Amino acid sequence: MSTWANLGLQDSASPLMEQLIFFHDHALLILVMITFLVGYLMFMLFFNSYINRFLLHGQLIEMIWTILPAIILLFIALPSLRLLYLLDEINEPSVTLKSIGHQWYWSYEYSDFNNIEFDSYMIPTNELSNDGFRLLDVDNRVVLPMNSQIRILVTAADVIHSWTIPALGVKVDGTPGRLNQTNFFINRPGLFYGQCSEICGANHSFMPIVIESVPVNYFIKWITNNMNS
Ligand code: CUA
């Protein structure tokens, strides 16, 4: 999760988020180079004293500074499209999770396993344990197996919500009457925190998401325990 004084992206916990971070760094580098070049040129304009009474046109330089930005944009657009289509791909998921946004909590359904379903509410500050995270911890976590392809179906029951987990690179709107899908692959165990990111009403800030990534055999134990109860 994001901690104090961390202004950048969180460490990735999935291959897609890793690629998103690479793309972010790539685009940022190009942006910094352009900003410095243009900034330097504009700054230096104040100090030059060149005058050329007969300068009317410069076809070559105009050609260069028209085509060059187009080529630079291509170097951003093509990797961006590659990532877009990679994010959209569903790679034979082994588990499907359905999450439904409500005002103001999430509920989950494991439709592959006897349709286990439960609600997931934020733990209020006054009920928080000493090792809990304020405004982020929930009473019922989403338990998911690591190292497996997971499909997530997102919808909502009342207004638009958004199921967002920064470390996994997942952000899907839950819209009433629609079913959106995406997928991810968690490559390490741990707790991954997320929040609703669609302004959905007074308690929008208080419907966090917690994913508990566990080894597959532990997940099977968890799911069988819940199917029996
Ligand atoms: Cu749900 Cu914002």
TrEMBL record:
Membrane association type: Multi-pass membrane protein
Membrane spanning residue stretches: 27-51, 63-87
Q: For this protein, what does the record note about how its cofactor is bound?
A: Binds a copper A center.
Domain Cytochrome oxidase subunit II transmembrane region profile residues, every copy: 1-91
Listed GO MF terms? copper ion binding; cytochrome-c oxidase activity; oxidoreductase activity
Asked whether the keyword Transmembrane is assigned, the reply is: yes
State any GO BP term from the record: ATP synthesis coupled electron transport
Task: Return the SUPFAM superfamilies for the record.
Answer: Cupredoxins, Cytochrome c oxidase subunit II-like, transmembrane region
Q: Which residues form the Cytochrome oxidase subunit II copper A binding domain?
A: 92-225
CDD domains for the chain: CcO_II_C (cd13912)
**What's its catalytic activity?**
4 Fe(II)-[cytochrome c] + O2 + 8 H(+)(in) = 4 Fe(III)-[cytochrome c] + 2 H2O + 4 H(+)(out)
From which residue to which does the signal peptide run? none
Q: Which UniProt keywords apply?
A: Copper, Electron transport, Magnesium, Membrane, Metal-binding, Mitochondrion, Mitochondrion inner membrane, Respiratory chain, Translocase, Transmembrane, Transmembrane helix, Transport
Q: Which Pfam families does the record match to this protein?
A: COX2, COX2_TM
**One annotated Gene Ontology cellular component of this protein:** mitochondrial inner membrane
UniProt keyword annotation of NADP present: no
Q: Which cofactor does it need?
A: Cu cation
Give the location in the cell: Mitochondrion inner membrane
Q: What quaternary structure, including any partners, is listed in this protein's UniProt entry?
A: Component of the cytochrome c oxidase (complex IV, CIV), a multisubunit enzyme composed of a catalytic core of 3 subunits and several supernumerary subunits. The complex exists as a monomer or a dimer and forms supercomplexes (SCs) in the inner mitochondrial membrane with ubiquinol-cytochrome c oxidoreductase (cytochrome b-c1 complex, complex III, CIII).
Q: Which family does it belong to?
A: Belongs to the cytochrome c oxidase subunit 2 family.
What is the stated purpose of this protein?
Component of the cytochrome c oxidase, the last enzyme in the mitochondrial electron transport chain which drives oxidative phosphorylation. The respiratory chain contains 3 multisubunit complexes succinate dehydrogenase (complex II, CII), ubiquinol-cytochrome c oxidoreductase (cytochrome b-c1 complex, complex III, CIII) and cytochrome c oxidase (complex IV, CIV), that cooperate to transfer electrons derived from NADH and succinate to molecular oxygen, creating an electrochemical gradient over the inner membrane that drives transmembrane transport and the ATP synthase.
Q: What is this protein called?
A: Cytochrome c oxidase subunit 2
Q: Which organism is it from?
A: Drosophila sturtevanti
Originating gene: COII
